Amino acid sequence: MISPSQQFAATLIAELVSRGVRNFYISPGARSQALAIAVGQLAGAGKLSLTVRLDERSLAFTALGRAIATGEPSVVITTSGTAVANLHPAVLEAHHSSVPLILLTADRPSELRGVGANQTTNQVGIFANCLRSFVDVPAARPSSIPDAGSLAANAIANAMGTANQAGPVQLNLQFVEPLSSSEPTANSVLSALESSPLASGAEHEELLEIEVDDHTVVIAGADAGTDAVRFAEKAKLPLFAEPSSGSRYGSSAIVNYQAGLLGPLAKQVRRVVVFGKPTLSRPIIALIKNSSVYVAKSRKHGKFDVGHNTIASAWQLEPKGLASSSWLESWKETAGSSDARSEFVAAVWDGAGSVPLLIGASNLIRVADS
What we know:
The protein is α/β, with parallel strands linked by helices. It has 2 domains: 4-191, Rossmann fold, CATH 3.40.50; 207-368, Rossmann fold. Helices cover 35% and strands 18% of the residues. The protein contains 13 helices and 13 strands. The chain has a 6-stranded parallel β-sheet with strand order 2-1-3-4-6-5, sandwiched between helices. Strands 9-8-10-11-12 form a 5-stranded parallel β-sheet, with helices on both faces. Strands 7-13 form a two-stranded parallel sheet. The longest helix is centred in the first third of the chain and has 15 residues, at 4-18. 42% of the residues are buried.
């Protein structure tokens, strides 16, 4: 006998995979067995990557790390009850850092809520306002199977931030018995679907030209990337790039910019151009609050106006004019006056060789930025 629960689970997992989702994480349990069976079938066929952990909290953080590294959504699957609550710390991190996570939380049917049934936790609203979207999906029954294609497409779009800010989404999936069956297989369902690339943010053509001069600097926060480097080098401006920016390179990069921010040169700054989301340095935040601010919009990080003084923002920023060479050289000279620390960092970096250098949160990442 074909279980409607298995039919729906196989279709949902196949729909996610057909749309480019590849990384799946499972903490096993009875209520989520149909999902686990479907994922296992596609993992065995080499269609997806599967990680299994007994502890939901560590599983969720592993999934979070993969999503941060790849920029692609990780799918986290849990059984019902307190298993779902254990995802909360990672969901908060994904919310604040705009990391795409798709949570498939198995649940008991709605008729068992609030009636004293065994092992029933109210999973609706358990993550409060930390989600980009939430759907409480009714149980699949012989007479009614939820539209897995629409659920998958919307979950991916909301997690990736195609319309708004990227982040975690939750499909709370009610399941009734029989909870699983051998048919249909997710492989057979997937073979009947058309594959498509993973959804990404739409391109925006909104452009803002910014007047630059010898009182302008560029600040690159988390995930600023090449745009910050291009803008700074094009305008001959100093670039202050945090370690998580991906922008700390090029002819404009001021590696030890903290030294300059604590000196008299910082008082000459009147205008800052912000890419990404700077959060590490108090001197940087102070500089932003005391200057006229122009911000490159970011789908990943949403609105950034920490000083409530942003003059304008746009999806694309272009410099208008050039700073004098003396402005950039002054910052380089100031930063170069503290070489001992730079030499120490270089020695650690070179000594690491091909081994990845992992920098911890809180104080360590700030030390690396100094």
